[in-house]
Amino acid sequence: MDNKHTDDSILKTVRGFMASRVIISAAEIDLFTLLARQSHTADEVAYTIGADLRGITILLDALCALGFMVKTNGTYRTESSAATLLSADAPASVRPMVLHMGSVWRNWSKLNNIVLGKAVPDLEKGILDKENFEAFIGAMHVVASRAAPDVVAVVNPGGASRLLDVGGGSGSYILAFLDAQPAMRATLFDKPEVIKMARARVKAAGMTDRVTLVAGDFYKDELPTGHDLALLSAIIHQNSPAENEELYCKIHRALDGGGRIVIRDHVMSPDHTQPLEGALFAVNMLAGTKGGGTYTFQEIEAGLAAAGFTKIKQLQDKRMFSLVEGYKA
């Protein structure tokens, strides 16, 4: 890998936050929704949302330069492909995820104090209200649904008949596993407010008779037993090593003899420097959690082994979609 830097390359990287901030601000103000419906002049936008005319004009022009808005004869409209992804009322909208990144932004602004061990205010829990939280889970489902079939194929559930999805969200992966395994039944374990959304999604998929929904908190509660396959998808990065080992132990107890655990997450190189996405995600966990981070295969293996798992190996090395498995003896 060529690590030679130039003044241009350094400044280009440092300036990267500018485009991000413009998009986040537009999502927070909800410009994409307003201008997806109808073109408006900057004066009309300023009047409608109570904005400063100079400020909104400069922001709208920057969005045009970035390709998110189109300016015609002094009026602005959300670019069509951006409208389908960033309007609040679009079925496949990722706006709630962009709003979440606004919370991430505010946590990252405290990074210096966190690294220097100085006192910091409570980490921001997010700006999503109930409506946007539900939309955020829905947006995560849109993203996860695209990747889930490939994950299922690599996992190769084989003869597994009872899946436990720990922290399974609204059911993206459970539905993919059940589609691939007609004889399989599944249990989705997550917090009560998420279970409510999962129930609607499972019902819409016609899988109600094959999915058991269990509300709980895996930090406090034991997990439902009687499973031969457990999925822990995008969870371990939010935990400390000790929290992960405790969770692995709970999953070990929830599995029948010979059952398998599969972990989906970043898996880092032994020196924790690659992949880049994983190293940056570790910073995100530093800024947003009390003990989370990204882990190497050796660290994941040690935690699983301490919980009693054997035959531990990595199935896939693919950034956040890396997969590690282990078996209960």
Automatic annotation (TrEMBL):
Q: Which one of the record's GO molecular function terms can you name?
A: protein dimerization activity
The record's section on Gene3D superfamilies has:
Vaccinia Virus protein VP39, Winged helix-like DNA-binding domain superfamily/Winged helix DNA-binding domain
Q: Where is the active site?
A: 237
Annotated O-methyltransferase C-terminal domain residues: 131-309
Domain O-methyltransferase dimerisation, first and last residues per copy: 12-87
Instruction: Give the species this sequence originates from.
Output: Desulfosarcina ovata subsp. sediminis
Keyword list, A-Z: Methyltransferase, S-adenosyl-L-methionine, Transferase
| Protein's name in the database | SAM-dependent methyltransferase
Which GO BP terms, alphabetically? methylation
